[in-house]
Amino acid sequence: YGIRTDRYKLIHWFGPGADGDPDIDFWELYDLRKDPCEVHNVYEERGYLPIRRELVRLLAEKRGELGIR
After folding, report:
1. Predicted TM-score of the model (pTM)
2. What number is the average pLDDT over the span 21-27?
3. 19 in the Ramachandran plot: left (φ > 0), alpha (ψ -120 to 50) or beta?
């Protein structure tokens, strides 16, 4: 699941691993203005922490509106 604004895209990949692989729990954040091809994941970059927090909040809010846990 994820959320997108005009400038940013936040995606959360999750689920059981296949064939004994570990479970999936991975986040991606893209700055679509600087990286329109979504090549450079900036989720862990300190400069994007305020953006990440806001998008996580918006995503949780939207999931709540839709009744998705």
Report:
1. 0.87
2. 90
3. left
Which tokens in the block code for residue 43? 């989720």
10 touches 3 (CB < 8 A): yes
Task: Calculate mean pLDDT across residues 4-31.
Answer: 92
- At 65 the three-state DSSP class reads helix
- Pairing between strand 2-4 and 8-15? antiparallel
Please count the CA atoms within 13 angstroms of the CA of 26 that sit on its side-chain side: 9
CA 17 distance to own-chain centroid = 19
Q: 52 is written with which tokens?
A: 């990440």
